[in-house]
UniProtKB/TrEMBL annotation:
The keyword Zinc applies. Signal peptide: none annotated. The chain crosses the membrane at residues 104-129, 363-396, 408-427. This is Zinc metalloprotease. SUPFAM superfamilies: PDZ domain-like.
């Protein structure tokens, strides 16, 4: 099956699951507090619905516009902007008639479900599949180090032993931890057998982001292609899995890090790639993107081990995975407000790209757990029209003892809705722009 179709199916299945459970997070406490729910929809039913059925007081359905989902709760100022209902006297079954603490619980329900679901999925993944890792003993050749990091004292061939004095189980985590965590020291084993603890600058994550050095540590391995990302320079040039790179612009390539260094030096510049395929020497012309990326990954030359977990261990370790996933996402969110970060914001195309090309349940659930935690964080942002906007106004009411003016709430909801639409258009516009111009 075409990789695009596989990714699209996974994206649709994952988002459908997360949206339905998120809305149940609002639906269940609303019912517990005897608040009428008029609609429960997966996707938006603008003008018409693909399916709908009324059960009790609630119409359940599936809309045609796959941009989310919603529950319409009686007596609540939401994206439906039902002014006619709000103009009527409050009824006991309406959202606006309930105590502020009940309304707060109803609004926090969706975020809570997404957060808990993400943590539970991480626990399930560890219990069923364990976690893969590559220790320093599995990487006898060590890492190739980019020139910018050699200034700190790192050397080609280094094996990473510790971060901040604690053993690093998976050596391949070094780049992510340097970018997102507070790394003060890295202990390495040089190829001459000497151990050294190297101090790391305080703003190393920002430096990596601004200079586009997201992989300062590259495993030393042969330049044999393992996968080709669709619609990238490598894919368009006709490179295939199993191709062995020989040279780039007449410069011999012996290891993968030499190839990476060469493509970075030829950002947005056409170059000749000579490679071997099935015993034949061939060549193609390819142009890396503005970050020097071709869109290929190497075949692993090192052993990948699996750490298995018992039931109790999977709970504690899965909780840690969930915590650090949330913490890392919140930490890197600040880059969205930079000029470079704004251009990298993605929509459904970027989310779909997070899924693997071939169906893999472990990867599917891991990506779904990540998206669930991201949705929890994004939904709690204090923007009107998001759950966080409603929570913000409810907290104001609880603290001051006064409800915000309904007209003000209507205008705030309208402004928030247009902000969200603008963000959705911008993010998906970035996807379209990259698909057209990053070729």
């Amino acid at each position: 099956m075409d990789p695009f179709i596989v990714k699209a199916i996974q994206l649709l299945l994952s988002l459908s699951l997360l949206i339905v459970l998120h809305e149940f997070g609002h639906f269940i406490p609303a019912k517990l507090f005897k608040t009428r729910v008029e609609k429960f929809f997966l996707f938006f039913d603008v003008k018409f619905a693909l399916f709908k059925k009324k059960i009790g007081d609630t119409v359940y359905g599936i809309g045609w516009l796959p941009l989310g989902g919603y529950v319409k709760i009686s007596g609540m100022i939401d994206e439906s902007m039902d002014k006619e209902q709000m103009a009527q006297p409050p009824q006991e079954w309406e959202f606006r008639s309930k105590p502020a603490w009940q309304r707060l619980i109803i609004m926090l329900g969706g975020v809570t479900v997404n957060l808990v679901l993400g943590f539970l999925l991480f626990m399930m993944i560890l219990f069923v599949w364990g976690t893969n890792y590559v220790g320093p003993d599995e990487m006898p050749e060590g890492f190739a180090i980019v020139d910018e990091f050699k200034e700190f004292g790192f050397e080609d061939g280094d094996r990473v032993l510790q971060i901040n004095g604690e053993d690093l189980q998976n050596s391949l985590d070094i780049n992510r931890k340097l970018f997102m965590r507070d790394v003060n020291t890295v202990t390495v084993l040089h190829q001459n057998g000497a151990e050294e603890t190297i101090s790391i600058p305080e703003n190393i994550g920002e430096q990596m982001f601004e200079e586009g050095i997201m992989q300062p540590f590259i495993p030393i391995q042969r330049p044999i292609l393992d996968s080709i990302a669709p619609e990238t320079a490598a894919s368009l040039a006709g490179l295939q899995k199993g191709d062995s790179i020989i040279s780039i612009n007449d410069q011999e390539i012996g290891y993968w890090h030499e190839m990476t260094k060469n493509t970075r030096a030829n950002k947005s510049t056409e170059m000749e790639i000579v490679f071997e395929r099935d015993g034949e020497i061939k060549s193609v012309m390819a142009t890396p993107d503005e970050d020097g990326i071709l869109g290929v990954t190497p075949r692993r030359d090192f052993e990948v081990k699996t750490q298995e977990y018992g039931f109790a261990e999977s709970i504690t370790e899965g909780f840690k995975d969930g915590y650090w996933t949330l913490r890392d996402y919140v930490y890197q969110f600040k880059y969205v407000f930079t000029k470079k970060g704004a251009t990298q914001v993605g929509g459904f195309g970027a989310i779909g790209g997070m899924f693997p090309d071939a169906w893999n349940w472990q990867a599917f659930w891991h990506t779904t757990a990540l998206i669930s935690i991201i949705l929890a964080f994004m939904n709690i942002l204090p923007i009107p029209a998001l759950d966080g906007g409603h929570v913000m106004f409810l907290l104001y009411e609880i603290i001051t003892g006064r409800k915000p003016n309904e007209k003000f709430m209507e205008y705030a909801q309208m402004v928030g809705f247009f902000i969200l639409i603008a963000l959705v258009l911008y993010a998906n516009g970035n996807d379209i722009y990259r698909a057209i111009f990053d070729k």
